[in-house]
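[INFO] parsing input record for diguanylate cyclase
[DEBUG] input buffer:
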Amino acid sequence: MSEPAPGRQRVLIIDDQKTNLKVLGDILRQDVDVMLAQSAEQGLRKAIEYQPDLILLDVLMPETSGFELIKTLKHQSLTSGIPVIFITALNDSSHEEQGLHLGACDYIYKPFHTAIVQARVRLHLQLARQRRMLEQLAHIDPLTGIANRRKYAQVLDLYWRSAARQQSSLSIVMLDIDHFKEYNDHYGHAAGDKVLHLVANTLKNSLKRPNDFIARYGGEEFVILLPESNEDGSRQLIEFCLQQVKDLHIPHDYSPVSDIITLSAGGVSCMPAQHQQLEAAIKPADDMLYQAKQQGKNQLRWAN
Ligand SMILES: Nc1nc2c(ncn2[C@@H]2O[C@H](COP(=O)(O)OP(=O)(O)OP(=O)(O)O)[C@@H](O)[C@H]2O)c(=O)[nH]1
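[DEBUG] output buffer:
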């Protein structure tokens, strides 16, 4: 399956009848990238892998019905947000009610009218796009443009569970700009805002892997999550991040530790266990940041 064209939305059509797949595919292909699946199992796989913007789902299919499949889709975090339109020969109100009750956003009877299918698909894609934009806005810190604390909480939960399942290491790092109050007091709040933006984006651009994650934790504090990264690799990367910020050479004549903007950081690498408390696992990173501040700032401390 080829990659979809950038910017184009994707629709996954799931129907056991090849002719239905072809007809529906043909009428939508002009507006969107179309993916086809001939069974519920194949549809679920493609929904997880390709994250379509919309699913058109037949109800009557052998083995697993559309009603069964939508229950699975709505229960999985990776697919629960994808809108589903039923398109079915079950053209009575009780089935329509059941489909909508199970979480479908629309219900179209077969035989269908081409123009109506196109119009409804367009409408739901537009709603999906608006929903995605709102979600993105709700997860971005407006000053720095990086993820905010709400997004961090979600990603941490996701990474934590995934690391526990795969028995892999997760590194958590807290970072804080040194003597930022003095910076604000002497250079002004607007200049402080610019520094926050620059530091946040320098840290972000210093991360290497697609799943490395940074958020603004609050004020002048940031948090970095490094999944599948052990202590050595994580420490090296964070030292590199701190150096990248120093290399900006942002003057800070009122910092007792340096004449440029520096950061202190505290990190921990852990192997999450299913029933371990998340808060307890993060605390060492906080403690290490505190230690770094106490022991002179402008440094990284790592929990043993
Ligand atoms: N410009 C600006 N300043 C902020 C923002 N959020 C928090 N701050 C400032 O960050 C400063 C944090 O001060 P402190 O918590 O005393 O920390 P600090 O001066 O960096 O001292 P250490 O952390 O011990 O090095 C305060 O002056 C806050 O007003 C922001 O969005 N913009």
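[INFO] The radius of gyration is 25 Å.
[INFO] shutting down worker
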